[in-house]
Structure prediction request, 735 residues.
Amino acid sequence: MKEILKREIKFRSIFLIVKNLVNAIRFCLYYELSRKVSIYFPLLDTLLHEDYIKRVAHTITEHIVSRGSSQLCARFLTKPISIKEFKHTHNLAIVIGSLKGFFKNLLWDLEKDSEEYRLISKFKVKVIGTFFDWLIADYNGLKARRGIIVNDRFIDEVTFVKPVPIHSCFILNLPTESERYLHKKFSEALEKYKVTLINPYIASLRADSKLLTHKLFETYNAIRGRLIEHPKYTFVQRDSTFSKVANEVLTFIKELDLKRIIVKPTHGTEGLYAKDFDLRRNSINELLNHIKLVLNFDDVIIEEFRGNMLYKGTLHFVVRINVSWNGKEFKVESGYAQIAPKENYGIATTSHGGRIININELFRNLYFKVNENCIKKYTLTKEDIDRIKKACVRVAEAINLGLCERDYLKYMGIDLVLEVKDFKVIPIVLEVNSRPSGLSYSYTLSYDYESDLGKANVIKNLIKYLEVTSHL
Amino acid sequence: MTIKDNLSIRQSSNVECIELKWNDPPLIKINGSFLEFIKSRGLAGIYALDLLLIYKFYSRYQIDKCRRALSRIGGLYGVYRRTLKFNSLYNDLQSISKTREVLREIHERFDYLEARLISDLLYFEMFEAFMDKLNLTKDIKDLKLIVSLLKGRESHRLLLDFLRNINIYSVNLLEQYVIASMIVQELSQSRKVEQGIIENLVPYANFINNAIGGGLKELFQYLKSSNVCRKSFSLSSFVEQALFSSELTEDAYNSAMRSYIKS
Prediction:
C-alpha cells in the first residue's frame, strides 16, 4: 500500500511539474518549431486545450518515470488522419478512463497480436485506444472521433478525418478510485449499440465481488464436481456490529484452526488494503483493527492463506493467467507471475512492492515447503501446466455460469497460487479480474520452460471470437 | 417558471426561440412551440438545446462588429468544447447524427442561423477544421477577418486594430482562448517580429487568464531576448535539461526555466 502510494505521489508530483513546464514553454516551442519547419498547429485544438496538454504531460512523465526504458515513441498528430486504414477492418476499441500503467505499451502489444493473426488468417483487427468522450453514436453505430493508434514505430494520438466505426470494445485502464462506477457507465452506454463487449459490466460484476466469485465457484463445484480449488473464506458485511464481526472472525479462525489468513476488501483491486496476518505473530487486535479500517468503505472477505510453493525457495508469488473466449471455448492466452517483495511476505502484487516476472521464469524456479524446516525444488511437468490451464478454463466457465454469450466476460485475468499435494501441483484460485492490468508482461505458458520463455501474447485467442462475430 | 440552481427558466411567447437575460438569477426564456419541438425530439432534442444554450451563454449579443464576431467564435468554441465532454456529462453516448438533424430542423423551422452553424460544427472533428469551412461560407462574412487572424494570416497592424476595437475587459473565458490563439499564431506565423509589435501586444496578453494563456509571458520574454542568446541556449537543450534529467525536481525545473528565460 505504502509502495503504491509512494509511486503514485512521485508520478503525480513529476506530472504536475511537467504540466507546468509544458504550459510555460508550449508557445516558445511552437514558435521555434514554426521557424524551423514552417509548421501550423491548430492551437484551439491542441496547445490551448487543457486536456491535450495533460496528455502530453502524462506521456513525458511516463518517459521520465520509466527512465526511457520503453522503446515506444509517442506522437501527438495535429492534422486529422484519413480513415482508409480502418475501412475494411474489425476495429477493436480499448475504452480507457486514464492513460495510467503505460497504456501505450499495451496498445502496441495488442496491435502486434492482431498483426500476427493477420498473417495466419486474412482477418484484420485494428486496435484503437480511446477515451469514452472520444466515442460517438452515429446513425446507431458506434464510432471514434479520436484515437491512440499504433503507426509503424510510433504510438500516435490522432483525430480522424471522419469518425471510425467501432465493432468491439474492451474496457480497461480505469482510474482505481472510480473503476466500477465508470465500467458500469461505459458498459451501459455501449450496450445500446451493435458492438461486441469483451467485458460487459453484468459479467464483470461477478468478478469484481470476491464474495460472488467464491459463490460461483461453489455453485460450479456443486454442479460439476469439486473442480475449482479456492480458499475457505468468511464474509463480513459493512453494517455488522463490531462485536458480531469479532465473533464471526474468531469462530472462522478457530473452526478451521488457521495459522495464517488474508483480509481483503470485497471489491478491492490491485491488492489495495489486502493484508496478510500470521496469527502466530500478529495479534488478534491488529487483525480486527484492519478489518475495522476496511469496513469503513467496503465489505470484507477473510480467506485462509494458501500456497506452499515458493519462488527460488524463499518468496511467495501469485500467478496471473489470462483466459479468453474464442467463440467455442475458453482458452488460456498467457500469463505472468508476481513475486512478493521479501521473504515470508504473503502478498505479491506490485501495489505491495512485488515485481512482475515471466511466467516461465517462475516455472524454472519453483520450490515447495515439505514442512516448516524443509524446502525442495519442484520440476513442473506438462501435466501440472495442463492442470493449471484446465483450472483457469473452469474458472472462466464458473464466472459466466448462466449467462448468454453476449453477456460473457470474454477476457479475464485469473490469480492463482500453487500448492504441491501428493507430488503434483494444485492451482488454488484467489480471484478473477475483469479489467486485467499488466497485460504487456504476458507470455504463453511453455511446456519447455527451461529453454523457452514463451511468446508475447495477449489476445490471439480472443481475435478468433472477433472473427466469428464480425460481419466483414 | 422554474428556478434551478440560481437560474430561472420561463416559457414565453414573446421570444423567437431562446433568450438569455443576465438578471439575478439569470433568466432563460424559451418559446413555447420551440420547447414543444425540442421535447418531441427526445434526447437529441435535449442535446441540441444544451448546445444552443451554451452558445447563447458564451456569445452575448454585441453591437460592435468586431466584438460580435469575437463573441460568435467564442460561443462556437464553447459549443465545441462542450461536445468533447458530452458523454461524461450525460453518462451516455452522444448521438451526433441525431443532434445534427434536430439542429438542422430548428434552423429550417425557426429560421435560427446559429442552430445551422452548430449543426455544421458537429460535422468536424477539430474546431479549426470547422473554421476553415466557416471561412468559405458566404453569409457569415463578419467572421472572415477573425478566422484569418486566428490562422495568423493577417498583418500585425490588423491584429492590433482588431484588439483595440474590442473592449478587452468585457471578453469572457472562451473569447480569451481565441485572443490567445490569435496572438501566438500572429507571432509564430509571421516572418519577422519587431520589438514594437511585441510591446503593443503585451497588454492584451497580460489580460488573459493565466490558466488559458500560461506561456504567453514566456513567449514574449523569449522573443525579446536576442537571437544570439536564444541560439546559445536552444529550446531542445532546455527540454533535455529540465525534462529528461534523472530526477526531475521543482528546483531543477525552476532553475532551468530561469536560465532559459534569461538567455
